[in-house]
Amino acid sequence: MDKRFQDKVAIVTGAGQGIGEAIALHFAEQGAHIVIAEINPETAERTAAKVRAFGVQAQVHVLDIGDHAAVREMVALVAAHFGRIDILINNAGVNERVDLMDITPEQWRWLMHTNVEGLFFTLQSVARQMIAQVPEAVKAAGRAPRSFGKIVNLSSVTGRRGRANAPQYAASKAAVISITQSAALRLAPYNINVNAVCPGLVETPMWDYIDLIEGQQRRGLPKGAWLQQRVEEKVPLRRPATCQDVAHVVAFLCAPESDYLTGQALNIDGGYEMD
């Protein structure tokens, strides 16, 4: 396989399972050193062991990305160890299925703390480091000859359209798209690319939770039946996405082939949303 990320340094938040783990392993397979930012120490170490099997370095930071001081410390430690940060994958996120009329302020703040606030300040901390890596001559010129960093934020097709039974999640993922656009504008003079991906129905532990609430508990369906029903009704390609499907698109957004792409939100949904 082409090692197109050979010796690049990539931070992946929420890399302990699901999409984050798939991204971490895909980048490691292509030669990147992986920094795993994960709240669960057991899943973080499990991913780290898989990453190291590719012959690259894995650094684990057990933290809540909503803890801004911990994120700043992680960025400083990564920069000190590797000398730079090339890639940030802002993947960590949470979900909760609650009807619009039943959400409490505590539930709203809990979800926004991770999905919006945590993502934003992680991006800010890493972006500051990426800017510091840009040579002064390039900064003075106001235009960089090549990319000096790649940032990919994980949004969702849910951020494209409201959801009555998950409005706080939909709002948080819409915010991710807006943050992506704002950051792309701010970081463009340094040729730091900022994009988002919007996965649709993906087979992940988060989907298992949604299937439990929506399929099994609310509708009395067997496990997995609601997912299959949603796929048949909503997805023209007639299958759910895999975590690897998402990882491949994220890799494209971090590769030289996407150097002229910034401020975009790409749907990875088999045609579920078309805009």
TrEMBL record:
Instruction: Write the Enzyme Commission number(s) for this entry.
Output: 1.1.1.140
Instruction: Write down the superkingdom of origin.
Output: Bacteria
- EC class of the enzyme, as a word: oxidoreductase
In its keyword annotation, does this UniProt entry include Amino-acid biosynthesis?
Answer: no
* SUPFAM superfamilies linked to this entry: NAD(P)-binding Rossmann-fold domains (SSF51735)
What keywords would UniProt list here? Oxidoreductase
A molecular function (GO) term: sorbitol-6-phosphate 2-dehydrogenase activity
Question: What InterPro entries does the annotation carry?
Answer: KR_dom, NAD(P)-bd_dom_sf, Sc_DH/Rdtase_CS, SDR_fam
UniProt domain Ketoreductase: residue ranges: 8-200
Q: Which NCBIfam families match?
A: PRK07231.1
Protein family (similarity comment)? Belongs to the short-chain dehydrogenases/reductases (SDR) family.
What is the protein named?
Answer: Sorbitol-6-phosphate 2-dehydrogenase
Annotated organism of origin: Candidatus Thermofonsia Clade 1 bacterium
